[in-house]
Amino acid sequence: MTDIASSTPENSMASAPALTIEHLSAGYRNRPIIKNLSLMPMQEGQVVSLIGPNAAGKSTLLRAIAGLLPATGSVRLGDVEILGLPLVDQARHITYTPQELPQQIALTVLETVMGALQVSRENRQDVDAAMQKAIDVLERLGISHLAMEQLDRLSGGQRQLTSLAQTLVREPKVLLLDEPISALDLHYQLRVMKEVREIAAEKRMIVLVVLHDLSIAARWSDRIVVLANGAVVAEGTPQQAITPEVLSDVYQVKARVESCSQGSFTVMVDDVV
To answer: Which is an annotated Pfam family here (predicted)?
Structure first.
């Protein structure tokens, strides 16, 4: 398993291009969700988890960063202002992965992942190279046995893994994951978070991921952002951001935050407030 403390890139990658979000506002029609939100800069190689109750604005924030919702403010990758760029140009820097793929698609898993490499000119390659790269990603996620299965015959969890494979094969600079493990069993939850953690370090990606399981978020993240009502309630290391006081305020629960016998950070909920 990856040692989070030893792999945190804040010092070694301080000079690398950072993802900076300042004064961001976004929402739907006349209903604002995110209001004047700013985050600490995210460095290459970091995994940052967004947590918070339902309707806190987590998915809205990801979609706004990806350019899928009208937004005001600033989203910068290094010196490049992302907001306002055409979607095709934004996609060269940032890739967004929704909770799952649409069900009515007759392509095979392998065809879908290979097709993701053709989205931008930077990723285009010959068929043999694209196939090998796609197979490598499927093997890494443990789903190479699904390569020839059609998407419309997959379970929700299998489609979710395929969606993640589509994203990882493109090796984006910034990876936005919206609840990537929500439909997965325990084996694949662990496998996906382990691979995301390792790929972020290997490929120097910035990963911003929405999670609901607080113990998983604490274990695999360099930083945690706690959202509620479209605003940042807490931000920092898992130990700084996930506290009994924050959990009581945001989730209305009485909880303990402790380390287990192997040093993992765990959250135990005892009662509602």
So the answer is: ABC_tran
